Amino acid sequence: MLRLCRACSSRLVLQPTPPISPASFYRGTSSFLHLKLFQPTTSRRRSVFQPASPYDSQCRSAYTISAQKLVSAAPLKWQPYLRLMRADKPIGTWLLYWPCTWSIAMASPPGVLPDPYLLALFGVGAFLMRGAGCIVNDLWDKDFDRMVERTKSRPLASGELRTRQAVALLAGVLSGSLAVLLQLNWCSVAVGAASLGLVATYPLAKRYTYWPQFVLGLTFNWGCILGWTAVHGDLSSWAVPAALYFGAINWTLIYD
Fold it and tell me: How far apart, in whole angstroms, are the C-alpha atoms of residue 33 and residue 21?
């Protein structure tokens, strides 16, 4: 490699640059990354790589920020119940809802958009059932949550809510979920009711098995089957939703 330098007042001389060893390149790159990316900035404009707060390091999305604002704007008595349902962390609802939409879209006739009414029903159902799962999870784990830094501020672990209040909320959420489910055909009602066993036992999978993510995949992607039966009314063509369900389980294993 050659470079141009000024050896005197006006004459340019070509001089060879010394070769760069891999070790020198690594040290230089590491120093650059350390100085440019991880040192605090004094500029008022936030750097792309510089978190503004500890929460930003968790890559909060706009949905999460909006949900937290809504929960904060709710009456104070409601806020512990909303946080128990993880209403301030909506990503779980999306992860439950997306497989439902995929299944509904695949089950729709060719050239026809998915039914908006069905999508809305499943959206409400995903929110309620995700909340029910979180309540069950916290009821199982409240004693352990008190000893973990990340979970000790949850409403049950911190003592904000009592067990009977959580059970009452769970009954209300499940009643709302049942009301949504009854809007579908009877095959879908049976398929939806079958998911309750997975919802109730997932917390135990974390304690007694080495594959809690697999049980989470079975639970979170049940909508692949439910969405199909909601459109077709049966599982006669079971191969398509089964393949979608299997693929979505692997997707959960990867992201979790």
Answer: 18
